[in-house]
Here is the input.
Amino acid sequence: MASGLIDLGVGRILNVLESEVLQQTGLRDEIEMTKLKLRFMRSFLEQHASASGSRDAVFTTFVKETRDLAYHIENIVDGFSYHINRRAGQAWLKRASHFPAYLRKRRSLVSELETVNQKIQQLSALMDMFHSEGAASLPSTGGDGQWAKNLQESSFFAGDDSLVGIDDSVDEVTWWLLDSEPQRIVVTVVGMGGSGKTTLASSIFRSHCVRRHFDSCCCWVTVSQSYDINNVIKAMLKEICKELGLQAPTDLSSMEYMQLMEILVNILRHKRYFIVFDDVWSTEFLDLICERLPNDVNGSRLMITTRSERVADFSFGTVSRSHRMEPLSEDKAWELFCKNAFSRNPMQNQGSNIESIARNLVQKCRGLPLAIATLGSMMSTRRSESEWRRIHDNLTWELSNNPELGHIQRILVLSFNDLPNPQKHCFLYCSIFPEDYEIERKRLVRMWMAHGFVEQSNGPKPEEVAESYIMELICRNLLQVVSWNISGRPKVIKMHDVVREVALVISKREKFCDVYMDEMEEAQCDETRHLCVQRGISSGVIPRNLYTLLVCPISQEKFGLLDGVKLLRALDLEDSGIDNLSDSLVKLYNLKYLNLRKTKVRKLPKSFHRLINLETLLIKHSEIEELPAGISKLRKLRFLVVNRNTLMTDSSNIWQLKRLEVLDGVLPKTNLVKNLGKMTKLTKLTLWDVRKDHMDDLRDSLSKLKDLRSLSLSPISEADTLPIDEISPPANIEKLNLYGRLERVPTWFRTLRKLTTLALSWSELREDPIPYIQALPNLVKVIFFGNVYEGDRLHFEEGFPSLKVLWITNMAHLREIVIQKGAMPHLQTLQIVACEGIKRLPDGIESLSSLQELSLYGVSDELTEESIDRSKFNHIPTITIA
Here is the structure.
């Protein structure tokens, strides 16, 4: 495991040494020399990891020392940053009087960095000594990679009696393989580590009917992460020659890639072959092997098992099909557990509480076969209820320390080791959220950015890079998608319970993340960097060098435990029930992220403007009614999301926040609207209480916001008119939300060629808006809410080429919806709510061949499920009328 943690130590130090704060010390040459030595240290550790494996004690000690050194340097730099930021928030006279203290602090930093440099030199010397004296005689074990390869290959021999819950999958994949299609077919089986991919593939590979179909020209190759392409081809040649009764070339060991491939291709040419490549991690392998194998249009098949969605989505240039390994159902999971846990004593789980404990253990595995089977085998030797309960209550500890569960951790850690350095931190950080917690993508991205986990780039924005990390973790099956937005981006994600447990094991060992559940755990998380508090809070639980505090309990107590936590960068209290904040909040000069959404907090400290490094402030759905004076002094603020009724004493000066990208929920004052155009980085803007006298200034300002992608405008009340005829959003606008009466349909609707989402509410239009938007090529979602149109008929005559979601709600005048054939060809969801005049299904709905869900709520009593001829709508999987 430690091989995957090298970059959490050395890599983190290198990142910290790039800090702007260090540039103020005048130690540039020394810092560059330190970075050079660190790169040599990393190379040594990586080389030793590949040679000896991560379980070598000396190697593990080096990794631990570099990690502790990384944290120490981070504390030094952030401590100095804290001092600088505190000084920046002071009046000039006070700042001048404290200048001698600043110089002393700077000298202290220089001295500490010199000590660190000496420590690095000592570690380097120890590494050199160890390398020269011990490395030459060190046997190569292959480490975790070889162990995993052995485990993969052992799964090949699993008996059919051990298979549970994959019968349907076996039938489906076998059907694909035996299909009469003469073109070569590539079948990929994709899923997270431990999901049963190898078990499924080996069951099919050993099937007599499959082997007969391919005339015994069958081959199984375990690829793994650290494959050698020449060795893979040699293994294939030996197995295929053996299957065909041929003599393998005797000089294979001296051949290189091109020679080996030529022999392999010649043997396979004109044969109907079946080859399984098990445990493929990269598309590079597919380029080197799969693309080179002959396709003689005689029904050959390739099967690939992989954890990577990118491998599964690879373009093979021929017919390809993909099977996703789904979690076992609750019944099948229990069956598999019982087969392993109670096979010796079927009556063990009866007459006691063992069965209820066992079912809870199975539930924690979330349908993951590896975890279920391994946990079941371990529990088969436990007899007493107390043993069962102890393991249930301490599963994270058992995963870390119990050899019987070790290979669950090691299988999943392989995926962790394969991650690039920045994504290791991002992945582990997800483990601080509670079990089964649904994490909003934007929330996670902003927290990552607060800690500098996201690599800086001259091209994409940091949040775009962060979102690519999320997609990579999803593609590697390390994160699961709960819901997608209409643009195909993950909206809400979560961690599989077992993956989270393993991530917590790594995080705790590395003092990176921890979860505080009760006072008994207080001593265990006193050195962690990122902490989640899930039950009651006491002052002793907050580590001094904490960087993240995530509070998840429902608590009414005053939150006043921030004294002494000077280095905090992210404070997230969302939905915690906390109703008050201590004034000590304003002393968190390094704070970059503050989330108070869905709390009962009523006010922010008066000196809130002292948080000069704050980048994200989220107070929507809190009880904060007013932002304190000086908010415009937070010049690094990038995301400001507030309640509609939140007042800002200096809202007219908000425009001075030149870095602001999201301004959501602001009550506009004339000076603000006039100067909005100076906030050129805005990508999202929500303005409430827009008046007619704002229009000229708003038009001028919007014309300057070239990066704006989302715009929401609302008048003082739904009865007021939103006078937007003369304005025109930027051409790149993607989301538009207009709330309130419109005098007419804006003609500029037709110009919004990049618009993906349009929401109109209480527009009270006398003219049908459909003709103005039907030709927009990228429109994916349309929401009509509350008497958008006063006519009684909506006619979708043509167009809407990309529309997938249509919601029609609270349109009292509506009596009829007509859909012409050819309109909305890709519509997937149609929802009609609180339209009591609708007495029948939309005319022409049978032409919507892509429709997956039709929902009608609060329509006429005459329209019921019994009143429709369901046979006409068999193409719609889900129809709900209530």
Notes: The chain has five domains: 2-141, 145-324, 330-409, 419-507, 744-882. Confidence is low (pLDDT under 50) at residues 51-55, 135-142.
